[in-house]
Amino acid sequence: MRNYTALTMYESVNGSDLSSIIGETPGRPITIVHRGRGAADLPHATSYLLVESSSPVPTHDDLVQMAAEQLRSLAPGIWQINRPSPSYRERITADETNGLICVRREYGGPVLDTAPTVVTTDEQIAQQWAHARSDPQARRQLQRAINRGVSSVAQMGRRLRQWIGMFPAKRLFDIAFSVTALLLTAPLYPIVMLAIWLEDGAPVFFVHRRQSIGGQEFGCIKFRVMRRDAEEVKAVLGSRNRSDGPQFYLPDDPRLLKVGRFLRRWNIDELPQFINILLGDMSVVGPRPSPDHENQFCPSWREARLSVRPGLTGLWQVCRTRKPQVDFQEWIRYDLEYLEHRTGLLDLWIIVRTPLAIFGNPARASGGST
Question: Which residues does the chain have with pLDDT short of 50?
Fold first, then answer.
């Protein structure tokens, strides 16, 4: 069985076939290259279609359908076929009897789709794809080729667009607000860091993996308020969890340091998140940033909250009641209400309400234990 199949595009869709769309002469062969299958007999062709090792050889009808899709230029000589596909995949876990245990959603990366269909006229790129031993290696090589082909100015522009996001006014407000907040709170940092270090040593910061827009993970920065073995102790305290949702919450959590109780009571532990806001991982106002396992509990809520950047404060934080067995329902309700009605005025109202919630009822504004 051959590793490569040369197919000729001769039918057109909307007046153009795949080869003519990327600037080649119609009717010339395009070679399908499977990842990791070796490349000694890779034939010369005008174009190469890079597919996964497990993917079946595209039929002529498949290629005609691809010709109808929009080609996005990644770099000179490299295009990605923008086929309608989700930026995530569902992983179903079952027991020995095929009984459903859970459905888990895994999100793809921000640069390339989870399983991109890429067309290139560069034979060297096709050879590298064919020789790649693993999927991560193939992606890295392809991304390096893309980066080489894109000018430094264009790369800076792309990063700037990602940093600003889809709502420039909100992003510019986030930048100005976070810079101002960091300057005003900077004198507190050495005091808080010294207090944590004197009680429990280093590290003084705690970085937890959370999900941002589109399921992208980032390191959410906080002052460390718990002992270093907090995760091990959490496993022992599991039966005492008072939360009705995916969080772990105890009103008098024994894992908290003495200084940590004070920091959490007044939400001082969350001040370093202004760095996340400045970096573009978070916004001043938005849904609470959550880790992957928390975002799996309610699919519609998960999809909605991951459509925007998470926030340092939000509607749930200023409106929650902390009533037993309704906190998670309130979390879902207020996240969805915010996403449906979000405006600049609503963001300003939440910002004004946040200090009132902290000083009036610190537990209301706090995100709780994790």
Answer: 1-28, 83-86, 109-115
